[in-house]
Amino acid sequence: MKKLLAILMVLTLALGLVGTAAADEVVTLKILARTSDLTANQPGIDALNEKLEKAIGVRLEWHNQASSGYPDFVNNMLQTWEPEDVYDLIYVQSTSINPMYLGKDLETLVDMTELVENSTYLKPAMEKDAIFAAQFAACPYLLWPSDVNQVLQFRTDALEACPSWEAFQQKPDQAAYTQLLKELKAQGYEAAFTTQASIDYLVKTGVDSGFGITNTWLKNEDGSYTYCRVSENFLKELQWYRQLYVDGVLSKNWATDNWESMENSLYTGVVAGIAMKGGAYTVYYDNNTVTNYGEGAHLTILPPMVGENGEQCYAITSQKFDRGWCISSSSANVEKAFEVLDWMMSDEGRMFDLFGVEGTDYTVNEDGTLNLLCSSDATSIYRIFDADVFGDIDVRKVATTGAKYWPDASFASAEMVAKYGKADNDFVIPDEHVINWTACESLWKEFATQYILGEKTDADWATFVETWHNYGGEAVEEYAAEVIE
Fold first, then answer.
1. Which of residues 338, 360, 382 is at a domain's end?
2. For residue 6, is pLDDT > 70?
3. Taking all residues of the chain, what is their mean pLDDT, rounded to a whole number?
4. Domain count of the fold of the chain
5. Percentage of residues of the chain with pLDDT beyond 70
6. Which structural domain range is residue 331 located in?
7. The CATH number of the domain where 105 resides is what?
8. Spatial distance between the Cα atoms of 88 and 445, rounded to a whole number of angstroms
9. Which residue spans within 9-75 are E strands per DSSP?
10. For residue 279, with 0-12 CB atoms within 10 Å meaning exposed, 13-18 middle and 19 or more buried, which class applies?
11. 397-415 per-position pLDDT tens digit
C-alpha cells in the first residue's frame, strides 16, 4: 500500500511538472521588419523579448527586408509562399500594399475587429482617439496608432523678425497668413516656403480650414455632398496660393522639389520654412537647421488657418493609414501575435517603444525620472509603434535630464495636431468606383498644380469641375450622401 501511494505521489508530481512546463511554454513568433540590418537593434530585440516572455509568454524571431522593393516582397510573400512559411507579424508600408484588398479577397491577413474589441489596451486607446478608431475601422487588417499630419514649420528667428508675428499669433486668419508670409520672403529668402512635389502637402497643412474646408465632403443645404476639391471654397484657396506663387512667396520649385531638394532649401537658407509632416519627422528638419544656423533657427509650428466662421482644424483621414502591422491568417498563433501588439499599447510597452533599453538608451535618476543617453531617433530599439504615440505618458515629464528626446518643434507639432486634429468624414471608396475615383483624384491634383503655376485660370474652372463629375465624381458624391452619417 505504501509503495502504491509512493508511485501515485511520483506520478502526481510528474504530471504537475508537465502541466507547469506547458503553462510556462514560450511561443516563438516570426516578425518581419522593414530595414536592411537589425544589428544595431539587437539590444532592443533582446530586451523586448525578455519583457514579452515575462508578460505574455512570447518571443519574437526577427527577420528583416531592405526598404528597396519592400512592398513587392511582402505582396509576393503573401500570395506565393507556403502558408507555414509566412511571417506571423508583418510590417507593411507604402500605398502599393493594400491590406484591405489582401485581407478581404485573398484571405491572407487577419481581421482584428473582434480581437480589438476584447483587448486590454488597444480598445481603450481607440476609445480615447477617434482618429485611430476610424482608421482601424476603415481597414481592420492593419494596426498603426498615429495622428501625424502635415504642418507648416518655419525658422523661429525668421518669424520673430516679422513685424506682424505677434498679431498673427492672436488670429491666424487668411489676411494674417498672407502678411506673415510676405514678411518672411522680404527678409531676403528666395521664397518663404516650399514643399515636396505634391499638392497634398500644401493644402493639408491646416490652410484648408481658412477657406471653410474642414472635411473632405462638404454638406449642402439640401443634404447632398460636394467633394471639397471641386468646391468654390477650393477655388478660393487655389487663387490664394496662385498669388503667393506669383509674388515669389511660395517657391518657384515647389511642384518639382523632391525630398532632398526640399530639405536642402531649408538647410541652406533658400527658404524660411516647409510644408511637411510634423512629429518625429520634424526632428530631422529642426536638428539640421539648428546645426547650420544656430539655436535661434529652431523651428516653430504654425497653427491651422482660421476661417470666416472661426473654424480652425486639421482634417485627418478616417481611411487606413499608409503603414502598420498585420497578422498573417496562416499563423498558428494569431491570438499571441495580437497580444504583442496589444501589450505594446500598455504603459510598459509604450515606455519601451519610446525610450528603449535601460543602461543602453537611458539611466534612471534618483527621483525615478529618466536621464536620456540618446535622442529619440538614436535608440537601440526597432519601434513597434510610431514615436508620435505617447499613450498616457508625458514624455517631457518622464525624460528630464540628458539628451533631448525631441526638439521643442516636434512636441509642438504633435500638440498642435492633438489640439486641432479631427477625424475627417472621408470613407473607403467602394470597389465599383475605385478606378474612376483614381482618375478623379489625379485630375484635381493636376488641375490644382497647373492653376497655381499659372497654366490654368479661372476660365478653366467650370470645365474642370464638369470633367471631374463626368469621370465618375458625381456617382461618388451620390454615394457620399448614403454613407456619411
1. 360
2. no
3. 91
4. 2
5. 92
6. 25-145+321-360
7. 3.40.190.10
8. 38
9. 27-34, 58-65
10. buried
11. 999 999 999 999 999 999 9
